[in-house]
Amino acid sequence: MLLFKKSLAILFIISSFYAQQVSAQEIQLSPADDLQQALNNSQNGDVITLGPGSYFGNFIISNQVTLRSNNKGEAIIDSQGKGHGLWLKNSQITIENLTITNWGHDLTDQNSGIYSHGKIDNNKVPSLTIRNNILIGDGFGIWLNQADKAIISHNRVKGNLTLRSADRGNGIQVANVTNSHVFLNEVSETRDGVYVISSQNNIIEQNTMHHLRYGIHYMYSYDNTVKNNTAYDTRAGYALMSSRRLTITGNKTTNSEDYGFLLNFITQSTFSHNYVKNVWTKPENKVLGRDGKGLFVYNSGYNTVKHNIIDTAEIGIHLTAGSENIKIFGNSFINNPTQVKYVSNKKQEWSKDGRGNYWSNYLGWDMGNDGIGDTIFEPNDGIDKLVWQYPEMKMIMDSPAILILRWVQRQFPVLKPPGVKDSFPLMSAPSLTKNEQAATPLAVTTSTFTKSNSAQSANTTSASLKE
């Protein structure tokens, strides 16, 4: 009897599946048709294709359908300055090839071009797909909350630079999202490019982000991978906060004003094969203590920082507020006026297994011809620490008194305060190759990615490899 009931249940599931497939329709609409009525009357599995033109309003999708146009951008969802463009209220919804514009700008109401918020039957919303769309508006671009196995790919999101950064939404915002993949998107002129909060086991890769506050911004998220992304013209390329077990590899950031990478309360994470170039505060924004930092590490411990390039930042790496128990080796610090700013009274050795880091201002020699400097490199001394505590001292840095104090410290090392030491400095910068970067575990189609994105990524990669 039990076997009979199980068989009936299986037959019911199979028949329901095939019934859904048979009833699914392909629906063609034009701007003259009522899109919301078509969405309301649709069945799970339907494919609704929008013809060229503008569809005005705020549209709610309550069924498991695909909403698309045949060619990217030819069908326009225009929300006339209010609300959400598309509100997704079910799982297994696909949004593809649309242009969505002119949605609302009320950030308190989370106005978004594409919006999904809240669980279904107390479960995360599975299998949302948002790909190959163009979104231009003032609020949030794509907002997903409580989603699982979502795919966000090949979209272009553009904000409004006439608004203050704080008054713009983020380009792509994912909250409480798991097992999802965000890749090959371009985000510009929003507040942050990709904002991730309270999310686990996601991959953020091969995105291009520019003219933003932060390229990628992480909060309270664990076991995520951020790789092979490109950020430029930002205040910070990557701002990672209050998260652990992150893998950050193969990313690039150029022309940031405050930080290449900002690590605030990050633990048990690995940062490798990343490239940071040109982190410099603009003269008009310069105030005492505001310097561009390639890596800023605040209250972050038990991390590994290896095989990165930090080139032409006002400060190469700044560690403070208990940032200890960090393995730092195999990195290249190039053309940074201040290579290291380390605010602590504990010693740190920055090498592993007889190999340290490359320092462009290292003046030692290599008598053994093994690629390792014969003298220890210590980037800071007691005078540096005094200047950090009392910035006004910069006015007398070249005075005879300061030069004598530095000479005394060199002659009597016992007077030198604890700090960073690299016992095995490298004589040349290690080369980074694509093979050293993490391989992509998921198939990615790049045919619809814009030529400008590809060119930017290629140029930055070439610069990284040459360095």
UniProtKB/TrEMBL annotation:
<protein>
    <submittedName>
        <fullName>Copper ABC transporter, periplasmic copper-binding protein</fullName>
    </submittedName>
</protein>
<dbReference type="InterPro" id="IPR007742">
    <property type="entry name" value="NosD_dom"/>
</dbReference>
<dbReference type="InterPro" id="IPR006633">
    <property type="entry name" value="Carb-bd_sugar_hydrolysis-dom"/>
</dbReference>
<dbReference type="InterPro" id="IPR011050">
    <property type="entry name" value="Pectin_lyase_fold/virulence"/>
</dbReference>
<feature type="region of interest" description="Disordered">
    <location>
        <begin position="447"/>
        <end position="467"/>
    </location>
</feature>
<dbReference type="InterPro" id="IPR022441">
    <property type="entry name" value="Para_beta_helix_rpt-2"/>
</dbReference>
<dbReference type="InterPro" id="IPR026464">
    <property type="entry name" value="NosD_copper_fam"/>
</dbReference>
<comment type="pathway">
    <text>Protein modification; protein ubiquitination.</text>
</comment>
<dbReference type="Pfam" id="PF05048">
    <property type="entry name" value="NosD"/>
</dbReference>
<feature type="compositionally biased region" description="Low complexity">
    <location>
        <begin position="452"/>
        <end position="467"/>
    </location>
</feature>
<keyword id="KW-0677">Repeat</keyword>
<keyword id="KW-0833">Ubl conjugation pathway</keyword>
<dbReference type="InterPro" id="IPR006626">
    <property type="entry name" value="PbH1"/>
</dbReference>
<feature type="domain" description="Carbohydrate-binding/sugar hydrolysis">
    <location>
        <begin position="42"/>
        <end position="197"/>
    </location>
</feature>
<feature type="domain" description="Carbohydrate-binding/sugar hydrolysis">
    <location>
        <begin position="203"/>
        <end position="375"/>
    </location>
</feature>
<keyword id="KW-0732">Signal</keyword>
<dbReference type="InterPro" id="IPR051550">
    <property type="entry name" value="SCF-Subunits/Alg-Epimerases"/>
</dbReference>
<feature type="signal peptide">
    <location>
        <begin position="1"/>
        <end position="24"/>
    </location>
</feature>
<dbReference type="InterPro" id="IPR012334">
    <property type="entry name" value="Pectin_lyas_fold"/>
</dbReference>
